[in-house]
Amino acid sequence: MTLVITGGAGYVGSVCAQHLLDAGHDVVVVDDLSTGHRDAVPSGARLVEGDVAEVADEVLGGGGDTGRVDGVIHCAARSLVGESAVDPAKYWHGNVVTTLALLDALRRHRVPRLVFSSTAATYGEPETSPITEDAPTRPTNTYGATKLAVDHAIGTHAAASGGELGAVSLRYFNVAGAHPAAGDAPALGERHTVETHLIPLVLQVALGQRDEIAVFGDDWPTADGTCVRDYIHVDDLAEAHLLALDLLAGDAPAIAEAGGHLVCNLGNGTGFSVLEVIEACRRVTGHPIPARVAPRRTGDPGVLVASSARARETLGWKPTHTDLDGIVADAWDFARSSRTA
Ligand code: UFG
């Protein structure tokens, strides 16, 4: 298939692009490089540099060398929860307005498949754990609200298309780890200019780039008092995108039954606390990693763990990198290699 991946110069997008290439697809990356990196775009993919809303019509219309587009994976997004509170306009425009333009272009050019990067942040503070897809969606931050708005927009477009557009929204829990280097292809991992995620921050302590890690609250109603999250390896996440495309390419009753738009959680179903993650990083790096308890971070839910039963049953997804130390080890290899690159 010829597949367009937006945000393909970013962390998740670049790993997805590599998996698509490995599976033999033609890949066009659309990225404005505002947060992504040119050198993260896998060789073998064609990069169209530009804003998704501005270039969607040309790329999906077969402009340049693209030809007919069989599907789009839409990863491009603003994704910092904290920033979304102080600059909501950036998130409503960057996530919602941009995606509405992409959806218009998809419909105009009759692109039949869409896989969207949604998030566990659409659920907010859960009432039950693990979280299933029919749990209430009450986002506690603007980032989650914008992703939920897009999920709704996709649902209505898919329903109105009368079967012309099929879509899958994948609700990621805590993506972590890195895609290891293979042959000439470099490792692909998390390289944010503004880093807010736990594992890369803890590894920065091990690398001597920061003195200690702040633990945001030790008074949560969890076993050790720190927040619990469901960490999923980025390679397992990427595989789910390929499976979603396969499902959309077939005559899938699951898509029809979902009104043309299927929503699937992606997580391992196991929660690890902040202290357990820090401990795993100490084991993997051999560094003492000083930690200090700090106040809770605004908008953080205490526990976020996925039920991925639907992804397993409907997509046939089976995560294979479920060991926390293994996830951290891949992130550590990447962090060390990108420091010396
Ligand atoms: N944490 C710390 N100290 C830090 C950074 C994080 O204690 O310096 C804690 C957080 O409070 C949280 C956990 O580590 O309990 C994980 O935090 P991350 O920032 O790594 O991830 P989040 O769970 O906040 O958010 C991630 C994605 C979001 C997504 C969300 C949904 O980054 O995009 O998962 O589950 F919306």
Task: Describe the protein.
The chain contains eleven helices and 14 strands. The protein has helices at 11-22, 52-60, 81-86, 88-108, 142-160, 198-206, 234-249, 253-257, 274-285, 309-315, 324-340, and strands spanning 2-6, 26-31, 46-49, 71-74, 113-119, 166-172, 174-176, 213-216, 228-229, 231-233, 261-266, 272-273, 291-294, 303-304. Uridine-5'-diphosphate-4-deoxy-4-fluoro-alpha-D-galactose is lined by residues 79, 81, 119-121, 173-174, 196-198, 201, 213-216, 227, 229, 274, 297, 300, 304.
List keywords for this structure.
341 residues; alpha/beta; 3-stranded mixed β-sheet; 14 strands; globular; binds uridine-5'-diphosphate-4-deoxy-4-fluoro-alpha-D-galactose; NAD(P)-bd_dom_sf; carbohydrate metabolism; EC 5.1.3.2; NAD
Mean pLDDT: 95
Helix content: 25-40%
The strands making up the biggest β-sheet line up spatially as: 3-2-1-4-5-6-11
Number of helices: 11
The secondary-structure class comes to: alpha/beta
User: Which outline best applies?
Assistant: globular
Task: Name the ligand types.
Answer: uridine-5'-diphosphate-4-deoxy-4-fluoro-alpha-D-galactose
Strand content is: 15-25%
Summarize the biggest pleated sheet.
7 strands, parallel
Distance between the termini: 33 Å
Q: Find the count of extended strands (DSSP E, 2+ residues).
A: 14
How are helices and strands ordered from N to C? EHEEHEHHEHEEHEEEHHEEHEEHH
Low-confidence residue ranges = none
Radius of gyration, CA atoms, in whole angstroms: 19 Å
